């Protein structure tokens, strides 16, 4: 047999073996994706049985928004969930359950969150603010409020106090966002490039398909992402409901109002510019900061945690009545350190208002 023929035979065998391996890998990947998709759809149907509305529906812009309240007192604490935290009623339970014996505690579930309806159209800051104000008014919950925002909702709380200072008695920031973070996230907010919903969905098409359509979100450690879901302050049924509500919204995430909140549309950019350019509202403010280096490293870049701490020190320095408390825990401070956080809130409300 000629040398060239030997090489040809070996090459043919190698190509055949490679083809078989590639086909096997492709079939295994297809089987995995199909199994993940099927399991996800099956679980969504099973989990739907755990979803039992907790709170009161009020009508806002023709849709139902859920408002949960507990306790009574002279002061009203309004808890506002951070971005992409769907099960707000359960996420805040470790904290409000420690405060509702003294204060009226309220949880707003925006459209696309919790038990509220979804909503179409713009989800810019001014829209969220006016809908939340209307929801509280329609629920008969009167101002002034002590706004308790987590994470991104801090921007809404600050704007609320800028525009309606008579409605905001104080702000309790639960590792809340402040406008200066734009400097690290988008550079100059005045010149940031706006994006449409269609552009955002197109840019993230593969992620949306894999993570949400196929159910890839189920591969994450749920307790690491949402620590309140493993809190001893929730019953077994409440933990199951936390997951059911979250997976309900995540299964169609990029089609929801929750997703559109994160898009810097032209209107959203204009709202953020107005927020950024206005003075910090001089209302009594308690800032409870985490030590979550991973979260702020991703958000703000190198030395993200130090930047996060510095911008909050800068924000507090602009106010006449501000207290900053540094905690040694993750971003969901209300879930992982509810005892410490509730104690700091009580001390602040009793001594600084």
Structure characterization notes:
The structure is a single chain. This protein has an eight-stranded mixed sheet, sandwiched between helices. The protein is 49% helix and 13% strand. It has 16 helices and eight strands. The model has no long low-confidence stretch (mean pLDDT 91). It is α/β, with parallel strands linked by helices and 353 residues long.
Write out the CATH superfamily name of the largest domain: Alpha/Beta hydrolase fold, catalytic domain
- Molecular shape: globular
Continuous helix count: 16
Helix content: 40-55%
Summarize the structure.
This protein is of the alpha/beta class and 353 residues long. Helices cover 49% and strands 13% of the residues. The protein is built from 16 helices and 8 strands.
Which helices and strands, and how do they pair?
Layout (H helix, E strand, L loop, with lengths): L2 H45 L8 E5 L2 E8 L5 E5 L7 H4 L1 H4 L7 E6 L15 H14 L6 E5 L3 H11 L4 E7 L7 H4 L11 H7 L1 H9 L8 H4 L10 H15 L6 H5 L4 H12 L7 E5 L3 H8 L3 H14 L4 E5 L6 H4 L1 H14 L2
Parallel strand pairs: 3-4, 3-5, 5-6, 6-7, 7-8
Antiparallel strand pairs: 1-2, 2-4
Helix pairs in contact: 4-5, 13-14
